[in-house]
Amino acid sequence: MNSIRIIKLSESQEWSNIITNSVNYDFYHTLAYNVLETEGEPILLVQSLDDAYIALPIIIRDIPESDFKDCTSVYGYAGPISNIAFDQVSKALLDMFHNNVLSFFKQTKIVSCFSRLHPIFENHKMLDGFGKTISLNNTIAIDLNLPIDIQRQKYRKSNKYEINKLKKNNFLVIEATTNEEIDEFIEIYSDTMKRVNASDNYFFTKDYFYSFLKNDSFEAKLLLAKKDDIITAGAIFTVTNKVMQYHLAGTKAEFSKDTPMKLILDEARLLGNTLDLDYLHLGGGVGGSDADSLYKFKAGFSDLNFNYKIWQFISDQEVYDNLVEIKNKDTSGGFFPLYRA
């Protein structure tokens, strides 16, 4: 049986080759994004059979006060990728991938693994029957294959009105080109996260933003909304494999009622059309329903939904249960892994 390969960040060329030769991948899989991870050690698991392979990026973490480890995925939409279409991956390769991932986990004392999956590429298909794949919520995307006027017709009526009003009131959108503009966006983003009481994992260092925006693995663009030369809002977008992702965004408090982010998203859509992309993926909200304000905001731009799934896998049930018992965690909760709840 072909053994699984473990690619580390130090093997940068090999990591990059595997990702860029894959059919469906996003910036979440790239070396440049994974190297920003601070929670643990990023590795790429690669299972090959003949000329085909499946690759899975994960972050290995120590479990506090134990001799065991677990793993998770980077923030965003990761999961397995392959150099062939997912529906053409052979059962032999899938079985080999599943069996060897389990063997690696047991050898490395990895108790459990959690991964966010990619809603557009539907890579959950390569994990069917291997642990649990759970539908969490829906995400929103603008279909850039539609004619531009049809795309805009799908906007909520109030969005069309407010975008026109922003333009009349001299708001415009530019792409950031200077470090001063990046620094101001970082401040706006951080202030926004504080204002909405975001959790710690939504805060990033200045080095994170610069490494992200100036990386060599994928295209990243910072779009800024300005009024009278004042930056009012900004958002980072990525362009990878025909998909534009809406990544991080913030608005100055004094301009929040003007909602300049709506103009930024409209301009990002037009940019995506110019670049001949398939989708501008806006992502989801907290709950993926109309009761969720973030989801409702994004749904005002499109009626196209994708189903967002996560993967949960326990490789050693006995150790997992012991850890939950030691940590005295409520087993009725939906958090995974429970011992980190």
From TrEMBL:
Q: Tell me where in this chain the BioF2-like acetyltransferase domain is found.
A: 154-285
Key words, A-Z? Acyltransferase, Cell shape, Cell wall biogenesis/degradation, Peptidoglycan synthesis, Transferase
Q: Which Gene3D superfamilies match?
A: 3.40.630.30
- PROSITE patterns in alphabetical order: FEMABX
Pfam families found in the cross-reference section: Acetyltransf_6
* Family of the protein in this entry: Belongs to the FemABX family.
Q: What is the name of the protein in this document?
A: Peptidoglycan bridge formation glycyltransferase FemA/FemB family protein
Task: Please tell me the species this chain comes from.
Answer: Olleya sediminilitoris
